[in-house]
Design a protein that fits this description.
about 350 residues, alpha/beta, Rossmann fold, 3 domains, four-stranded parallel β-sheet, 15 helices
């Protein structure tokens, strides 16, 4: 019998242990589903202590993972930084593979687990290290800025990384009149609209964000007069033009916290709306439903199995990891310089 073949029961002890979690999730998880999730959540939280493990959970995970078992929730870089700072010996990445690679690069001495190795990313898969080398040959001397949503071999070839929150700042920090920006074409177009630096683009896209359209947002306005539309910069330009606010995942959450609109739509992966709605019960979230199929590969049973077996573990070639870490360190140095100025 394999570890997760053991039947976990919704006992009175499990119910009592998980009831505070369910009270927070009552509006986003039907009560009839809780006896399925609760035994897994209880056992995962027990195993975290036994394994000296920390779970880092991306904003796009389902609520039972995001609110039920996480030690840290946020974006991919924040997840990796938390993993590096924690005393935990095991980091379980509830996200996709490039996020697990980032965690391993920043914590090479720790065991980094990804509950499903097939959890990929259309954006990260759109470019390779070889593609970056070809771009550099085509544009000699032009620095390469790569979004963190890339695999380690791509970051190893770049000059500096960026997030959606700091992309403009990173581009302008280089002091050049031209940069190569990879791989997200839409994020690159947004950056180009915010700076005088010439931006050379790559045709990569997130399969979740590229499906939104400006017409879709106009339909929301017709059906919900006065709605606040908040979009992620990975969306196409017609979507960003229609939005009231454009920002990273953390920026979107902060905007809701600051504005507290009566009605809001978050133009991003739909689980994020469920997760943010828990924190702001006074706000009505109109939910688009573009799911990330890769994020949804991560589930409570797979997290439990990963903790039980300490597999599958993510590794990154040491030479590639060393080069990729340089591009991350350069980005973090930009943040430190701006915060001290």
């Amino acid at each position: 019998m394999t570890p997760t073949d053991t039947q976990l029961e919704f006992t009175s002890e499990v119910k009592a242990a998980t009831q505070p979690i369910y009270e927070r999730l009552r509006e986003v998880i039907p009560e009839v589903e809780w006896p399925i999730h609760a035994p897994l959540i209880a056992r995962i939280n027990e195993l975290k202590a036994e394994r000296n493990a920390a779970l880092v959970v991306h904003n796009y995970q389902v609520p039972e993972i995001f609110h039920g078992v996480a030690d840290y929730t946020g974006d991919s870089l924040g997840m990796a930084q938390f993993g590096a700072d924690t005393d935990a010996e095991v980091i379980v990445v509830c996200g996709v593979r490039f996020m697990a690679e980032t965690a391993k690069i920043l914590s090479p001495e720790k065991t980094v687990l990804l509950p499903d190795m097939a959890a990929g990313c259309s954006l990260a898969a759109s470019i390779t290290g070889a593609d970056v080398r070809a771009l550099k040959q085509e544009h000699p001397g032009v620095p390469v800025v790569t979004y963190v949503n890339t695999y380690a071999d791509v970051r190893a070839e770049a000059d500096i990384c960026c997030t959606s929150a700091n992309a403009v700042k990173v581009v302008e920090s280089l002091g050049t009149d031209k940069v190569i920006f990879i791989p997200d074409e839409y994020l690159g177009k947004y950056v180009a609209s915010q700076t005088d630096v010439e931006v050379i683009l790559w045709k990569g896209a997130c399969e979740v964000h590229e499906r939104f359209t400006g017409d879709e947002l106009r339909t929301y306005r017709q059906s919900h007069p006065g709605i606040e539309i908040i979009a992620h910069p990975e969306c196409p330009p017609d979507v960003l033009n229609e939005a009231d606010f454009v920002g990273s995942t953390s920026g979107m959450i902060q905007h809701v916290a600051d504005r507290r609109p009566a009605d809001v739509v978050l133009v991003t992966e739909c689980s994020m709306s469920d997760n943010v709605a828990v924190e702001f019960p006074d706000v009505n979230f109109v939910r688009p439903c573009n799911l990330c199929p890769h994020m949804k590969r991560i589930s409570l049973p797979k997290i439990l199995r990963a903790l039980e077996t300490l597999e599958p573990a993510v590794d990154v070639d040491p030479e590639t990891a060393s080069k990729a870490k340089l591009s991350l360190d350069r980005m973090l140095a930009v943040g430190r310089a701006s915060s001290s100025s």
